Amino acid sequence: MQTGSDQVVGPDAFIPVAERFGLISQIDRWVAETALRCLQQHRKERIFINLSGASLGDEALLDLLATWFRDHPQSARRLVVEITETAAVTDLQQTQRWMTKLQKLGCRFALDDFGQGFSSFSYLSNIPADYVKIAGTFVCHLDTDPASRAIVQALNTVAHALGKQVIAEWVETGSIAAALQQLGVEFGQGYHWGLPAAVPPRPG
Q1: Which sign, positive or negative, has the C-alpha torsion 83, 75, 32, 11?
Q2: What's the chain's average pLDDT?
Q3: Beta strands 108-114; 131-134: pairing state
C-alpha cells in the first residue's frame, strides 16, 4: 500500500489496523478482484492470494468468486487461495463449505503457516486444502538447525500422507532450497528466487 506521498506501507503495518477497524474484508475483496483481472490479462500465470479468516464468512465474496469462476473456468484453475491454519480451524464447518464450493469450480486452496498451531495434525485431514505451506519459522534455519530440519521433515511427511502438496515459506538461500529438495518438498517461496515486484504490463 502507498500513502499520498508515495511511501510504501507493508502489510505487517496496515493489516492489523484493518482487522481492528473491521476493514479487512474490503481489502480481501480488492485483492481477489485484482487477482482475477490479472489472471485474465496474463493467461499463463498462476496466482496465490491470502484471505483473512473474516472473509471465510463473507457470502458476498464467496458468490463473487463462484460467479467469476463459472464465467471464466480457465481462471479458476490458476488461482490458489491461501488461508491460515488458525482461520481454517476457527469455524471448521464454514471453512469446509467455502472451500468445497469453490474447489468444485476449479479453484484450489493452500493451508498457510502450517505447523504453528497445536491442532495441525488432527485438523489437516478435515481441511480440503490442495497445498500445505510450512511456516517460515521452521524453514529459515533448516540448513543449520537439526531440530528445524526434523520438524520440516515431519510436517512434509504428514502432509504427503494425506495427499497434500507442500510449499515451504521463507526460502532465503540456496542451501535452504537444496535441503528442502533433499527432504522431498515440492515447492518453495522466498527471496532466494525473487523479491516482491509489481505486476508486469500486459504483453502485446
Answers
A1: positive
A2: 87
A3: parallel
